[in-house]
Amino acid sequence: MNKNTTVIAKVISAVLQPVLIPTFGIVLLLLGDTILSTLPPAYRISIAAAVFITTGIVPTLIVLIGMMTGNVSDGFISQRRERTWPYIVSLLGYTGCCLWMWHVHMPPFYIAPVIGSTISLLLITVINLWWKISAHGAAMGGLAGGIVAWSLLGGHNPLWLICLIILLGGAVGWSRILLKAHTPAQYCCGWLLGFVAVAASWMLI
Question: Structure pTM?
Answer without folding.
Answer: 0.93
